[in-house]
Amino acid sequence: MVDIPESHPRYESLLTRHRIEDGVEHGITSQQGLIAQGRGEAFDYLLGEQTIPSADEAARVAAAELLLADHPVLSVNGNVAALVPSEIVELAEATTAEIEVNLFNRTDERIERISTHLREHGADTIKGLTADERIPGLDHERAKVDGDGIYDADVVLVPLEDGDRAEALAEMGKTELVIDLNPLSRSAETATVPIIDNIIRAVPNMTRHARELRQLPEEDVQSVIDAFDREKALASAEEAIRSGE
Amino acid sequence: MVDIPESHPRYESLLTRHRIEDGVEHGITSQQGLIAQGRGEAFDYLLGEQTIPSADEAARVAAAELLLADHPVLSVNGNVAALVPSEIVELAEATTAEIEVNLFNRTDERIERISTHLREHGADTIKGLTADERIPGLDHERAKVDGDGIYDADVVLVPLEDGDRAEALAEMGKTELVIDLNPLSRSAETATVPIIDNIIRAVPNMTRHARELRQLPEEDVQSVIDAFDREKALASAEEAIRSGE
User: Fold this and answer.
1) A22, closest residue in chain B (CA to CA)
2) Pick from B34, B241, B244: which is nearest to A35 by CB?
3) Which residues contact A120 (CB under 8 A, 6 or more apart)?
4) Which residue out of A35, A43, A243 would a mutagenesis test of the B interface target, given it has the greatest number of B Cβ atoms within 10 Å?
5) Which among A24, A42, A243 has the least Cβ separation from residue B43?
6) How many CB atoms lie within 10 A of CB A219?
7) Fewest CB atoms within 10 Å of the CB: A70, A111, A243, B18?
8) Closest CA in chain A for residue B41
9) Gap from A15 CA to chain B (nearest CA, Å)
10) In which order are the strands placed within the sheet that holds B98-101?
11) Closest by Cβ to B39, choosing from A21, A24, A39
């Protein structure tokens, strides 16, 4: 373990880098995951490595969606598990959501390793190994999900998801919450609620919002959802990246 | 080998991805190299995956600098060797420059592997293993260069170079030619000639310019250099990334 003082000006970025390297060491982060990490770094750099107001609002809306869902599921891939293992567990607890491991390059060994990693960070039940259902419109291996997990969910959080799967899940009529640093990505374009932010900041932020919102009457939580304008959120994120502000 | 038809709309991007994966397989591309590749992809995406006019001009100026140099050296790291092995050899030939392998995470084994890879792509003499001199102002391992290579060069091409080393080389008074997709990076800021372009496009483009320019009288080649405005080139690249044009 590397001990990085929180006061370090590059604390977040060093922590991220360290967790990703740790993920490679534990066979959790893939080659594609490392490249994806780099793409995220570039967009975050242009965003000023901060949570912009529209992303904070989207995180609040996403928290509201999870709280009002009948069956919310958080989909976790290699980079998510490497970057925010305990933060995902806390979000699941705050929203009574399930966690399902779902990989772009799926192998049972990697799912096992990621599940173990999440358990070491406090997770209880983890779905993803049953894989008894298929998302329509995807290749066999990419389509596999648990019948009583993502397949049955009405609201899914898919952080750092690839475009094909994000589209296929949206086609199934699910409310899709996406965390992605590229507002022009197909995942972001497809999402019901696109959160254009670094997952390292977005997941704890969602948890904070969930803990606040769950104190409120259901209609107030619903009104947070109703007030959200996804087109405006995407446009404001793109503007932030383009203007560097 | 993957056979990708040149007519494929994503030909360049697939070729890049394939070469990087190949580089990992051969122990040439590092973890940091994969993350750096992802950062480059994001900036290239925002640039529209094209060589903008100011980058084409910078490539021409860089070719002119190599042609008029007393001792031009092309510095090659893992990603450069993986992405443009034969293209670097062709540029060295067109400009009678030397090639030196210089790594951020230096080990003699990786230098050997990269040298072998370059030889398989037609390189003759490759420097980098003697490492009998040091760039002032850098940590021991990062500082190592060949005394009759980069240390002695008046003009160096440092594609995809890290900021610390780019600054230290500039401090030595060398004419520094940088290829980098981020116009705000320290390497680009430090360069005498910053080429804000994908290395896959920039290196063959420099070779093409070098073959044209070497037909001209020396004063005409010098006037290409004299007309260059680096601040304008950086500003126009940033503008292209911000505006998406």
Assistant:
1) B31
2) B34
3) A85
4) A35
5) A42
6) 8
7) A70
8) A39
9) 15
10) B98-101, B72-76, B155-159, B175-179, B193-195
11) A39
**CB < 8 Å to B243, chain A:** 242
User: How many beta carbons lie within 10 A of that of residue B132, not counting itself?
Assistant: 12
Cβ pair A41:B41 closer than 8 A: no
Encode chain B (245 residues) as per-residue pLDDT tens digits.
445 566 665 677 778 888 888 888 888 988 888 888 999 989 998 898 999 999 999 999 999 999 999 999 999 999 999 999 999 999 999 999 999 999 888 888 999 999 999 999 999 999 999 999 999 999 888 899 999 999 999 999 999 888 889 999 999 999 999 999 999 899 999 999 999 999 999 999 999 999 999 999 999 999 999 999 999 999 999 999 887 65
Amino acid at B21: E
Coil, strand or helix at B98: strand
B-chain residues within 8 Å CB-CB of A241?
46
Place of tokens 């998801």: A161
Which residue is associated with the tokens 């965003």? A47
Question: What does the block give as tokens for B115?
Answer: 């040298």
Per the CB < 8 Å rule, is A243 touching B242? yes
Closest listed residue to residue A1, CA positions, set A25, A22, A17, A27: A22
Strands A133-134 and A144-145: what pairing?
antiparallel
Say whether A31 and B39 touch across the interface (CB within 8 A): no
Q: Where are the alpha helices (DSSP H) in chain B?
A: 11-25, 31-47, 53-68, 78-83, 85-95, 108-120, 140-143, 163-171, 186-190, 199-213, 218-226, 230-243
Chain B: closest CA distance from residue A37 (Å): 6
**A202 and A55 in contact (C-beta within 8 Å)?**
yes
Q: CA distances (Å), B69 to each of B133, B136, B157, in order?
A: 21, 22, 11
CA–CA separation, B6 and B160 (whole Å):
25
Chain B residues with beta carbon closer than 8 angstroms to that of A31: 21, 24, 34
Q: Does the beta-carbon distance from B38 to A43 stay under 8 Å?
A: no
ipTM surpasses cut 0.85: no
Which residue type occupies B173? Answer: G
List, edge to edge, every strand of the sheet that includes A155-159: A98-101, A72-76, A155-159, A175-179, A193-195
Residues (pLDDT < 50) of chain A are 1-2
pLDDT at A199: 96
pLDDT score for B10: 66
Closest CA in chain B for residue A16: B35
Q: How far is Cα A91 from Cα A21, in angstroms, rounded to an integer? A: 24
Q: Encoding tokens for residue A116?
A: 């173990």
Residue B41 and residue A39: Cβ atoms within 8 Å? yes
Question: Which parts of A29-102 fold into alpha helices (H)?
Answer: 31-47, 53-68, 78-83, 85-95
